[in-house]
């Protein structure tokens, strides 16, 4: 996105006023600056390790400080998410020029197909493996981790200006509309809104993400819910993780073919986005990092700025995979009758429901509760187990979602050429200072 490029010079002045260092050898100056940087990826990893370790010994009074911060920060994220969607998607669609509507439909179609294929893949593996793996096992009802979490000292409600789906529809209508008129004040205003959103993300969201992640893992470690769920479904968790790895490799094989790049290098390039999502459990909160990683993988700015925020809401392949697998497991251990035809219908409906799921922690399972009850006959106990299981390891599904978003953007960029009039030149992009 062009606004990130305009932000780059702000961090550039540090090396420029050092001609003496340059005289002693350019090679000496550049590596030193790289070594001094402590990027987002190691900070998130440190936050996760410290959160789990300190969560076992931290006094509850101190833990509630971080829980309070997370409660306020989550409210701010919820307020900002619709603005992120409008501020990024609308001007990105406008910059695509003619053919944006077709590209929108193409992106949505590719995202839906990816989600459905992941769900069917999970269903097939579950049908083959889980009956033998969970034979003779049963589990009682578990508490919702959100209900048993450490209470914050206080909460501040920051209601968003409008909902996620309203933001999407508004961004689509305005973005496509701006492609039909001459460039003017409206498009310039949305570009300025994008700059404001990006600066807010860079100055507030990204620097505070490690603290938010630390507080989340402290809470999970202290209430013990994550160990209960993972201990009960340890084998299922391993199967889910193995399936997400297979899915990501398959997605990036297609993406690498689409833009003629090494798929494994592209997948490794998405590591900061994967780790960010692993800690936040929020596709929307990870948008800035996903966007930068996608651009560094060679996806044109116009496509990346359009596809990544859109896919953060409608492409939940990892969540669909996880919900399908755990639903099958819960039905087995609860003694419910499992119908493959009913499960196939559930997967297709789940793909539609995921489009409306907010890209926030636990958003996918909350959106799926109605389908679980109506199509699979889940009662309160079964729904409780699903919620507990899903939220406890929500981050792995979210990490798969956002990493796959980069693959979807690459695939879409292959078909965008010749169909839109915007600039689809892939430029070399240095990572933002936080990534």
TrEMBL record:
Tell me which UniProt keywords the record has, alphabetically: Membrane, Transmembrane, Transmembrane helix, Transport
Q: How does it sit in the membrane?
A: Multi-pass membrane protein
Question: Where is composition skewed (Low complexity) in this entry?
Answer: 19-30
List residues traversing the bilayer: 40-59, 71-91, 103-130, 161-181, 201-220, 226-259, 271-291, 303-331, 338-357, 363-393
Cell compartment(s), UniProt: Membrane
What molecular function does GO assign, one term?
neutral L-amino acid:sodium symporter activity
Does the UniProt entry include the keyword Metal-binding?
Answer: no
Gene Ontology BP terms:
serine transport
GO cellular component terms, semicolon-separated: plasma membrane
Could you tell me which residues belong to the region Disordered?
A: 1-30
Q: What is this protein called?
A: Na+/H+-dicarboxylate symporter
């Amino acid at each position: 996105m062009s606004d990130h490029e305009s932000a780059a010079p702000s961090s550039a002045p540090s090396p420029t006023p050092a001609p003496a260092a340059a005289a002693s050898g350019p090679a000496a100056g550049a590596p030193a600056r790289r070594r001094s940087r402590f990027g987002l990826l190691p900070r998130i990893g440190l936050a996760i390790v410290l959160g789990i370790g300190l969560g076992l010994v931290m006094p509850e009074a101190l833990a509630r400080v971080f829980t309070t911060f997370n409660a306020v920060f989550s409210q701010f994220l919820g307020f900002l998410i619709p603005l992120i969607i409008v501020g990024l998607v609308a001007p990105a669609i406008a910059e695509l020029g003619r053919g944006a509507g077709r590209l929108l439909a193409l992106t949505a179609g590719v995202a839906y197909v990816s989600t459905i294929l992941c769900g069917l893949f999970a269903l097939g593996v579950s049908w083959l493996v889980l009956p033998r793996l969970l034979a003779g096992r049963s589990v009682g009802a578990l508490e919702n981790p959100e209900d048993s979490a450490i209470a914050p000292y206080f909460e501040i409600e920051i209601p968003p200006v409008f909902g996620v789906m309203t933001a999407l529809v508004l961004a689509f209508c305005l973005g496509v509309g701006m492609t039909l008129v001459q460039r003017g004040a409206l498009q310039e205003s949305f570009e300025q809104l994008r700059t404001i959103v990006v600066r807010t993300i860079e100055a507030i969201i990204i620097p505070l993400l490690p603290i938010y992640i630390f507080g989340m893992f402290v809470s999970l470690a202290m209430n013990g819910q994550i160990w209960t769920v993972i201990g009960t479904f340890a084998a299922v968790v391993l199967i889910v993780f193995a399936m997400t790895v297979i899915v990501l490799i398959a997605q990036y094989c297609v993406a690498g073919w689409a833009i003629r790049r090494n798929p494994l290098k592209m997948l490794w390039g998405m590591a900061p986005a994967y780790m960010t999502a692993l800690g936040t459990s929020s596709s929307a909160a990870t948008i800035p990092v996903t966007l930068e990683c996608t651009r560094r993988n060679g996806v044109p700015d116009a496509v990346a700025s359009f596809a990544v925020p859109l896919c953060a809401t409608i492409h939940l392949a990892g969540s669909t995979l996880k919900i399908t697998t755990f639903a099958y497991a819960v039905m087995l251990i609860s003694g419910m009758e499992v119908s493959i035809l009913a499960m196939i219908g559930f997967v297709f409906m789940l793909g539609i429901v995921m489009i409306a799921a907010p890209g926030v922690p636990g958003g996918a399972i909350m959106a799926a509760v109605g389908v679980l009850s109506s199509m699979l006959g889940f009662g309160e106990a079964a729904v409780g187990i699903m919620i507990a299981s899903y939220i406890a390891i929500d981050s792995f599904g979210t990490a798969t979602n956002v990493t796959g978003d980069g693959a979807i953007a690459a695939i879409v960029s292959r078909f965008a050429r010749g169909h839109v009039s915007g600039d689809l030149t892939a430029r070399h992009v240095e990572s933002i200072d936080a990534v």
